UniProtKB/TrEMBL annotation:
Organism from which the protein derives: Parablautia muri
GO molecular function, one term: hydrolase activity, hydrolyzing O-glycosyl compounds
Boundaries of every Glycosyl hydrolase family 13 catalytic domain copy: 145-598
SMART domains: Aamy
Annotated CDD domains: AmyAc_CMD (cd11338), E_set_CDase_PDE_N (cd02857)
Stated name of the protein: Glycoside hydrolase family 13 protein
Family, similarity comment: Belongs to the glycosyl hydrolase 13 family.
InterPro entries registered for this protein in UniProt: GH (IPR017853), GH13_cat_dom (IPR006047), Glyco_hydro_13_lg-like_dom (IPR004185), Glyco_hydro_b (IPR013780), Ig-like_fold (IPR013783), Ig_E-set (IPR014756)
Coiled-coil residue windows: none
Length: 707
């Protein structure tokens, strides 16, 4: 007899015999948040208490099952709504995984990260990694991503100049019109944003309510994106400070950067480099003064062809105080930093390994150079230490680093040690597509940019669009089953300490802007033109997405300008400038309110997650702890929907009242307080079209209906 038939048979038997209430599977719950795992981040070789919840007097037994060994859980407490069972287990210095087996009469079921299941699957077991802790400040932190060149120009004297140097086939361009769309080949375009601009806008960032700034790369680099690092020791003076500005621009007839004397002085003169580092330290100090942390972008898989260790452009060849680069001569102290295929072509050997074949991105050859390995460990510690005091690293293409999986894991283990020894409160998070489980082992990455368990499911559900705007899938649009299934599957790759700090983005520098995805136009700037990214967008859908972002487990991450209504196809178009002077003020205020709601309700930052309902373009879920509950309901249909939502299994009394914190609709949004009755554990509610609502139950404001 299969599981469903067995449940029905047991229900009939109990009903006929007048026995206890039927088996209530909705009431079953556990996870690894602090209400169900104590301590929530245990040390090795310690005792932990694991809890499980069930309806009152509704189950016979529940076992915690670890490696096939069953531990009987005893009833620990009752809160009037549920029974709580507990058992104590000893954890060692390795991952501890488990699921639950629930017995009701002849019925046996499994409970794991999927919820109720027929049989145990190791992939979905609850997991504890003793000794793995993530900083308290990062749990649920609101992050703001800044692509510096496009944020704000606070110091025009450090702007990259037109024809200052040559890069990827042409000379640099200083963009005079701040509002111009980025060019299709925009790597050489510079708008002039800088760190002084960030300092100038600190009031704005603080008023927005963010907890963390994540900077795209800041180190000396020839591009505006700076993922082709030239010097890991210094902040680029073009976004920092230029105090010495000697030399000439490249003449029209010249294509050789060894003659770009103005550029060479700007980026090799230690006066400029030290002044820029000092400015960065000032930015971090000011951010910290306002309660804002700072995360740097680390590009350690590859560097740039301009890098002083390679020096393909011969920028450092005759600069004072620099060793010869590996491109220049075979005797370079940096020769082992790179893999050369032809040993017989020095001087000026261009036969090196480039990441994905790009000669502008030489791949770093750690396996062959302990000096390089040690130096990058020094860099890892340097920027999270005084006087800079950054609060962590985001790691670019982290899974690509090295030439073997074994070395990749070794590198990140050592990197994390170096960072944590220098700053025990710093975090290490990685860019990663796909399953991150093998790196989220408590010894390497703390967490990841959360594509699989946030950006993609949210995008597919609300827009039907792929994250680059390269495809539209009608079968994915509004598909709540796919949304919930994807979330359950991919979130199982995280332990709770990783999940609570995962970078939950709607947009970033590598993908189209979420607001543009709402127009459901498939294409890019080179196929549709940049103007098309602005057309037919739906801010109401963006507001729905922000409600989900600000109430989902993890660290909601705003890509600069999303809060102000910036559009754009995938990069480089998604790297448009912040629209100072013509921001969408209503959208900014909405973000402020949702950030406030996120920060004021602890159950959102560290509480449990449970689904309420799902249908075509309908989604409901709760975030809760033992004291407070947030309910989020989304109607992404183009018509209103009236339906009944069961909420008692979130811990809300069956006769009670919920208070509205936010309602966003097609017309706008409101934070006006409104009460909704809960009757027999259910809410009957009409959701306007293209809407989302955030409701709260708190024992402190129990309504008249509460019993």
């Amino acid at each position: 007899m299969d599981f469903e038939r067995l449940v029905r048979a047991e229900k009939n038997r109990q009903y006929i015999s007048g026995m206890r209430p039927v088996f209530n599977r909705k009431a079953l719950f556990s996870d690894t948040t602090e209400d169900y795992l104590s301590p929530s981040e245990p040390s090795p070789y310690s005792q932990v208490t694991i809890r499980f919840r069930a309806d009152l007097n509704n189950i016979d037994r529940v076992f915690l099952v670890n490696r096939g060994i069953k531990h009987l859980m005893l009833k620990e407490s009752c809160d009037g709504n549920f029974d709580f069972f507990a058992c104590q287990v000893e954890v060692e210095d390795e991952e501890f995984s488990y699921h639950f087996e629930v017995q009701v009469g002849k019925i046996k079921c499994i409970y794991d990260a999927r919820g109720v299941a027929k049989e145990a699957v190791p992939e979905y077991a609850f997991r504890i990694i003793p000794g793995f802790k993530t900083p308290k400040w990062a749990k649920g932190a609101v992050i703001y991503q800044i692509y510096v060149d496009r944020f704000y120009n606070g110091d025009p004297t450090n702007d990259v100049l037109t024809s200052e140097y040559e890069y990827i086939g042409d000379k640099t361009v200083k963009v005079e019109d701040w509002d111009k769309y980025p060019a299709v080949m925009g790597v050489r375009e510079f708008y002039g944003g800088d760190l002084q601009g960030v300092l100038d806008k600190m009031d704005y960032l603080q008023e927005l309510g963010i907890n963390v700034i994540y900077f795209n790369p800041l180190f000396v680099s020839p591009s505006n994106h700076k993922y082709d690092i030239q010097d890991y020791d210094y902040i680029d003076p073009h976004i920092g400070k230029i105090v010495s500005d000697e030399g000439e621009l490249l003449p029209d007839w010249c294509r050789e950067n060894r003659l770009a004397s103005r550029y060479i002085d700007r980026v090799t003169n230690k006066k400029n480099l030290e002044a820029s580092n000092e400015l960065f330290a000032e930015v971090v100090k000011e951010a910290h003064r306002r309660g804002i942390r700072v995360i740097l972008d680390g590009v350690f898989n590859h560097c740039g062809s301009f890098n002083k260790w390679m020096d393909r452009e011969r920028i450092y060849e005759n600069a004072e105080g620099y060793e010869k680069g590996a491109h220049i001569c075979k005797e370079s102290p940096y020769n082992g930093y790179f893999q050369f295929y032809n040993e017989n072509v020095w001087p000026y050997n261009g036969s090196y390994d480039g990441w994905w074949g790009h000669d502008t991105l030489p791949k770093l050859n750690y396996e062959m150079s302990k000096e390089l390995f040690d130096y990058i460990m020094h860099v890892a510690a340097k920027w999270v230490s005084p006087p800079y005091n950054a609060d962590g690293w985001r790691l670019d293409v982290a899974a690509d680093l090295g030439h073997s999986p074994e070395f990749n894991h070794y590198f990140w283990q050592e990197f994390r040690k170096a960072v944590r020894q220098a700053n025990p409160d710093a975090i290490v998070l990685a860019e990663h597509y796909g399953n991150p489980r093998e790196w989220l082992n408590g010894k390497e990455w703390d967490t990841v940019m959360n594509y699989d368990a946030f950006m993609e499911p949210v995008t597919w559900f609300l827009t039907g669009m792929q994250k680059h705007s390269d495809d539209y899938r009608g079968d994915m649009f509004g598909n709540a089953d796919h949304f919930m299934g994807s979330m359950r599957h991919y979130m199982a790759s995280f332990t709770t300490p990783s999940l609570q700090i995962a970078m939950n983005e709607l947009s970033n520098h590598d993908h189209s802007r979420f607001l543009t995805r709402t127009n459901k136009k498939v294409g890019r700037t080179n196929t549709l033109g940049a103007q098309a990214a602005d057309e037919g967008v739906n801010k109401a859908v963006l507001r729905e997405a922000v409600v989900i972002q600000m109430t989902w487990p993890g660290a909601p991450t705003i890509y600069y300008g999303d809060e102000a209504g910036v559009c754009g196809f995938t990069d480089p178009d998604s790297r448009r400038t912040y629209p100072w002077g013509h921001e969408d003020q209503e959208l900014i205020q909405f973000h402020k309110e949702m950030i406030r709601i996120h920060k004021e309700n602890q159950e959102i930052c560290t509480g449990s997650l449970k689904y309420i309902d799902g249908d075509y373009n309908i989604l409901g879920y709760g975030r809760f702890n033992r004291k407070e509950v947030i309910v989020v309901l989304v109607n992404n249909n183009d018509h209103e929907a009236t339906r009944e939502f069961s909420v008692w299994h979130l811990g809300i009394p069956k006769e009670s009242v919920m208070k509205r914190l936010m309602l966003t609709t097609e017309e706008g949004y409101t934070t006006e307080t409104y009460e909704y009755p809960v009757t027999a554990g259910k809410m009957n509610i009409t959701l306007p079209k293209t809407s989302a609502i955030v409701l709260k139950y708190n024992r402190k404001f129990r309504g008249k209906a509460d019993k």
